[in-house]
């Protein structure tokens, strides 16, 4: 299938814009690669330190410095449900590496905060900053220079982008991303939001709210709505950094364990000693970055990736901007309806056909670079497959020809809408992005007076006093990175939803973030320039 002209146009523009920075990055990677196997370069004292605590059989392999040694960078903690399953993964990886004649070590851990726990709290102001801490932590772990490939264990919001950025700093090393999978479906999202709004109105007590929240977030695994965490997982698939179909297999299952072991074996195979050398610098190129944007648009993914993908690409010397997202959005159809773009969750999406179905449809429509390199080898067509167990080993087969549920997943020939639902907004308040696919058509146009707020708590205080029962546009300023770390403003969603249900037209304008994970009103978010950087919203002082 010929490449779609818009995809071809954007890719060419990205290549031209990135020519110098990409060449400089690849030159650094080549210098590192040319130095050869890391353990062969370190001193005897350094090497002794590196394997002092290992089991005797592993010590022998590490001492010879001929077989690959896999460095595991893990974001494990057992407070974050999506990362709790990672507790078991290092041992699975080590066993698989030994069986392949290699070794594996936990190179380091990185912080993994939960946006769900910190929403509306001061800790949320550290959330975006944590991405760069994670990137640095990944680089610190790999700086020990005794690893031949990397396995990155992470799922959630800032964690996967940070791991990607850190791994790209060691672009001569192969890197495979290993997910944990989603928790089982809990209470329906519509029911959860109904109780949240009742609580905001004072019609439900804290016990009722806690009960419904606990039935929604109730087990190990990723939260099942299609927010930034699950958008991360789809992007790792379409960028070729997962094993095919790994994203949404549940944790603590035989198939998940088999995929984890297979990731270790594949990391051995694509190391410099393994015969299929595939460094991450060659996987994350202009084609992979454009594929990521296309995949995000086709599934209605999180607008947080209008920030994260820019940073991830930059780490590989590739320069993209919001104009690229906007241009691609005009050509990429919306193929999935997953909450908040619909009522289904990622388990329903997986059952309907999952990542492999979407990738196959996009390749068939000429919307993806099929020839992009991947950690699986071959072309991106390998990702139009689903994993299954044959005995204790994982195998792959083509995804079904038809969607199992066209209310959740549709072919490119019959999409939910003709465009990706992400738009670039420009005007006298600067530039911003909006995810219209998560907003009902009746709520997409709001013409009303602006009411200016200093923060989200002021919005809620006035809501509680009954002062916002009118059509209005909430302008929430000084929520950018310089002001307070650019937190998500999901705390506003129940109150604004109550006002919408009461018949009022409401919208949000902010230099903070509202990723679309729960936005019902149209959010003009991540406005640039920020108020703290002299952006136009800083001058807003009264209703206009």
Q: For the terminal residues, how far apart are their CA atoms?
A: 51 Å
Kindly give the count of domains: 2
Shape, per Cα inertia axes: globular
**Tally of contiguous helical segments:** 20
State Rg: 23 Å
Structural class: alpha/beta
Total number of beta strands: 12
Largest sheet: 6 strands, mixed
What proportion of the residues is helical, as a percent range? 25-40%
Largest beta sheet: what is the strand line-up? 7-8-12-11-10-9
> What fraction of residues sit in β-strands?
5-15%
Low-confidence stretches: none
Mean pLDDT: 91
Could you characterize the architecture of this molecule?
This protein has 544 residues and is an alpha/beta fold. The chain folds into two domains: 292 residues, no CATH class; 118 residues, IlvD/EDD C-terminal domain-like (Glucose Oxidase, domain 1, 3-Layer(bba) Sandwich). Helix content is 40%, strand content 12%. It contains 20 helices and twelve strands. A hairpin with a 2-residue loop joins strand 5 and strand 6. The radius of gyration is 23 Å and the shape is globular. 56% of the residues are buried. The model has no long low-confidence stretch (mean pLDDT 91).
